[in-house]
Amino acid sequence: MLREKARETYNRVRLERYNYYTGKASAEVYVEEPFPYKVRDKEALQRYMDADERLNKVDLKIRYYDVELKFLEEIIKTISNRTFQIKNAIEWNKFQAGYN
What we know:
- It is a single chain.
- By secondary structure, this protein is an all-alpha fold.
- The protein has 4 helices and no strands.
- The protein has helices at about 1-20, 25-30, 40-50, 55-95.
- Helix 1 packs antiparallel against helix 4 (about 55-95).
- It is rod-shaped and about 85 Å long.
- The two termini are about 50 Å apart.
């Protein structure tokens, strides 16, 4: 749920920054954080968006949650495989003891 919330935040911030870089944001935004250009080229806009600190901060949070989720999934997979490992160890001990 935290990842999904961060994803929602990312989409919202991306829209805000898009409006900011294209000159469509409200005047109050430019008073707080002046930006003298209106980016019209798609490639230039993408470069600005990729370098934007706010977007990168939220994107980093999303990637952090992805790593956490992958780690937890691996732990659960290891625990579920543990039953097979225990069964095989018991059968190996039986085999060594001469049971069939």
